[in-house]
Amino acid sequence: MRRLRLLLLAPVMALLSACDLVVLKPAGDVAAQQGDLLMISTLLMLIIILPVMALIVFFAWKYRASNKDAEYQPDWDHSTSLELVIWAAPLLIIICLGALTWAGTHLLDPYRPIDRIKPGQAVAENVEPLQVNVVALDWKWMFIYPQYGVATVNELAAPVDRPIRFHITSSSVMNSFYIPALAGQIYAMPGMETKLHAVINRAGEYEGFSANYSGDGFSHMRFAFHGLDQAGFDRWIAGVRQGNQTLDRDRYLELEKPSEKVPAVHFSSVDGMLWDAILNMCVEPGKMCMGEMMAIDKQGGMTMASVRNTMPLVYDKYAGRGKSPAYFGSNDSYVMTICTPLQAEAAAADRVRRAALDTVVAPSSLDRLTGQGLSPKRASLASLAALTPVAPGAFAAAPTGVRSAPNA
After folding, report:
1. The pLDDT of residue 248
2. Closest CA to 176 of 225, 141, 211
């Protein structure tokens, strides 16, 4: 029987041997603090759990049927000393856990820039954090390095002892960005930007993945994270720049399509406005950006004149993709937006000169604009109705004070 028990325990031991203690022994200071918080919380709770488990065994042994000497008091119902112990110990533990949770929630807030590299070493004032823009695709990860003008798919690298600032979003469904050796997980959501600050303190190769189920290819949505010294990171960036692939909007739309087990891909150059387009969900040509839509709402809306522009607001990822441009509405358009601050200032000056006319006039002094937006609030329904429809991309009224990035 003893040999049989040992044989039954063998599979359990084999499974335990595959456990990875990276969460408790990470290579990043933020993850290390989170691991310490986990251990302290567990030890505090064990102050109650261990005595309770020991007393269960003790009572079962003391009051066993064969123990005729056990004291039996069927009418006992109260003990002040016992009540004090029962309630005081959990109360003190809850107070300690609450204090730890409150402090950890603020000190380890993923949106809070880190103030130390490791225990006893503060972040130098002249150190610029490494910014990485992260996009969760189906089912792969894209990383854009705006400071270096490169991008990768399913491969990430960062120098040791340099703060990292992640800006995270998703192309379609919610995912969870997680590198156990670096820091805790944080969600990636379409049309929203979450942030994560961290630092890697020990060189090595680590694994990152999605910790939130997101479809068929979820189990393979993993990537390699390289912790490198500064010289090694510079060589890695140089190697990425040696490639001949460019990440523009067309290439992004191809990568956005669902695919599994995608190998690492390097892009030597990146469209500078791609990240804003991804975040505003307007990478596809003709689609209105969320920033433009919010500008329209801020100005009070476009009343009935905006009916022709409702189709570009449809954000179903694949509905109508590849169809004719008519999917994005009719060829008539009444609204558009300023694409750069300089154009916004020029349009504002032009409207001041024409304010006495009380009508909507197209700013002829500006270059041809792109995108869609709104007309000034002073435009009446009558003046809007009198407007001659213009083709998409032609001039129309521009919003007062609206400044947004160029859009396709």
Report:
1. 93
2. 211
